[in-house]
Design a protein that fits this description.
Elements: H1 6-21, H2 28-34, E1 39-44, H3 50-56, E2 64-67, H4 73-76, H5 86-98, E3 101-109, H6 115-118, H7 124-141, E4 148-153, H8 166-171, H9 175-186, E5 191-196, H10 204-218, E6 225-228, E7 231-233, H11 247-258, E8 263-274, H12 279-298, E9 302-307, H13 317-320, E10 324-325, H14 338-349
Parallel strand pairs: 1-2, 1-9, 2-3, 3-4, 4-5, 5-6, 6-8, 7-8, 8-9
Antiparallel strand pairs: 8-10
Helix pairs in contact: 7-9, 11-12, 12-14
Keywords: Carbohydrate metabolism, Glycosidase, Hydrolase, Polysaccharide degradation, Secreted, Xylan degradation
GO cellular component, one term: extracellular region
Catalytic activity: Endohydrolysis of (1->4)-beta-D-xylosidic linkages in xylans
C-alpha cells in the first residue's frame, strides 16, 4: 500500500486498528475457555450445507453441540421399546469427529411425545416404568459421550406451578427426581440439568424452577445444573411482551440458583426482533447479547453458553413465530452480525 500523504497514512493506520479490533480469529469457544468457562456451543441439526458445516466444524467457535431435535422422544422411541438412533447418531458422530462436547437434549418433556405415550392407559407404576425404560435406553446408548443431559425439560408454567403433562397427572411431582435418578444410573459420568425458558426474569417461574432444584435435592438425587434457555427478545413482539433484563438483574437471577449449589448455563440462547432487521435494531440486539453474555461471564458457576443455531438461515423462530427472527450471531449468508462483535468484546472485557 502506498501512502502519499501524512493524512492518508493516519487514515490508513486508523483503518488497520479498527480492522484488528473487530477481527477475532480466536473464536467464541476459545475466548470463553481462556476466561475459565467450559464451552461456547451451538444447537445442531445435521444438514447438507457445506458453508454451515465448515463453520460448525470450527472448534475455536464451538466447543459443544446440542442436538436440536434428534434426541427427542418422538424420534428415539416412536413406538414402545422400538428405538431409532439414526438422527441422534448423526449429531454424535459430528461432535466426536470434531472433539466437541455434547449437551444431550432431552430425556423427559411434555412435548414431542409419540401418541402411544400421551394416550396410553397408565397408572403410576406403569408410567414410571415407561419413563425410566426410555431414560435407561437413550442415556445408556450414549453413555460416556454426553458431557451433560437435559434430564427434564420445561416442567413448570409461567406462574411457577407444575405443567399439566402426562407425567405430572399420573406420577405427580416425583416424576422429576425419579427421572434424575434414572439418568444418573444410566450415564453416571454426565452432568444432569433441569432446563426451561423464561427463567431469566426473576419471576414466579424462576421461583418454580428453584423449587424443582430443591425438590430433587430433597430426594438425595444428583442435579448438577439449571439451563436457562434464554429465548429472548430485543424489542416487544407479538409473542414476547418483555425485553432483555439488565445485566445486573440477570446476574442476580443466576446467582439465586448457584446459591443452591448448582451450576447454571445459557442453553438455547437467541435474541429475536421484529423482521426485517435494521441497522438500529441490530445495534440494540448487539447490546442485549452483551448483557446476557456479560452476566454469565460475571458469575463463577455460569459454566457455558449455547446458541440455538448460529445462522439466521436455519434459525427456528420465523417458522414458529412468523414475522420474528434474525435472532442469532451470523446472518443468512453466514456473515458475522454486530451481535457477534459485541459477544467477543464482552468476553474479552472480563478480567
Amino acid at each position: 500500500m502506498r501512502l502519499n500523504s501524512p493524512g492518508v497514512a493516519v487514515m490508513a493506520f486508523a483503518g488497520l486498528v479498527m480492522s484488528a479490533r473487530h477481527h477475532h480469529p480466536r473464536g467464541l469457544n476459545t475466548a470463553v475457555n481462556e476466561k475459565g468457562k467450559e464451552w461456547f456451543g451451538t444447537a445442531l441439526t445435521v444438514r447438507k450445507d457445506e458453508a454451515e458445516r465448515r463453520l460448525l466444524d470450527n472448534t475455536a467457535e464451538f466447543g459443544s453441540v446440542t442436538p436440536e431435535n434428534a434426541m427427542k422422544w418422538d424420534l428415539t422411541e416412536p413406538t414402545q421399546n422400538h428405538f431409532e438412533w439414526e438422527a441422534a447418531d448423526a449429531v454424535v458422530d459430528v461432535a466426536v469427529a470434531n472433539g466437541q462436547q455434547i449437551h444431550c437434549h432431552n430425556l423427559v418433556w411434555h412435548s414431542r411425545l409419540p401418541c402411544w405415550v400421551v394416550n396410553g392407559k397408565w397408572d403410576n407404576a406403569t408410567l414410571i416404568g415407561v419413563m425410566t425404560n426410555h431414560i435407561k435406553n437413550v442415556a445408556g446408548k450414549y453413555k460416556g459421550k454426553c458431557s451433560r443431559w437435559d434430564v427434564v425439560n420445561e416442567a413448570i408454567n409461567d406462574n411457577g406451578t407444575f405443567r399439566d403433562s402426562v407425567w405430572y397427572r399420573t406420577i405427580g411431582e416425583a416424576f422429576i427426581p425419579i427421572a434424575f435418578r434414572a439418568a444418573a444410573e444410566a450415564d453416571p459420568g454426565a452432568k444432569l440439568y433441569y432446563n426451561d425458558f423464561d427463567l431469566e426474569y426473576g419471576n414466579n417461574k424462576t421461583e418454580g424452577a428453584r423449587r424443582i432444584v430443591e425438590l430433587i435435592q430433597s430426594y438425595g438425587v444428583q442435579i448438577d445444573g439449571v439451563g436457562f434457555q434464554a429465548h429472548l427478545s430485543s424489542e416487544i413482539t407479538a409473542t414476547s411482551p418483555r425485553t432483555v433484563p439488565s445485566k445486573e438483574d440477570l446476574i442476580n437471577t443466576l446467582e439465586s440458583f448457584t446459591g443452591l449449589g448448582v451450576d447454571v448455563a445459557y442453553t438455547e440462547l437467541d435474541i429475536r426482533m421484529n423482521l426485517p432487521p435494521t441497522e438500529e435494531k441490530l445495534k440494540v440486539q448487539a447490546d442485549d447479547w452483551a448483557k446476557v453474555v456479560g452476566s454469565c461471564m460475571a458469575v463463577d458457576r455460569c459454566v457455558g453458553m449455547t446458541v440455538w443455531g448460529f445462522s439466521d438461515k436455519y434459525n427456528w423462530l420465523p417458522q414458529f413465530y412468523p414475522g420474528e427472527g434474525a435472532a442469532v450471531l451470523w446472518d443468512e449468508n453466514f456473515q458475522k452480525k454486530p451481535a457477534y462483535e459485541a459477544v467477543v468484546d464482552t468476553i474479552n472485557a472480563e478480567a
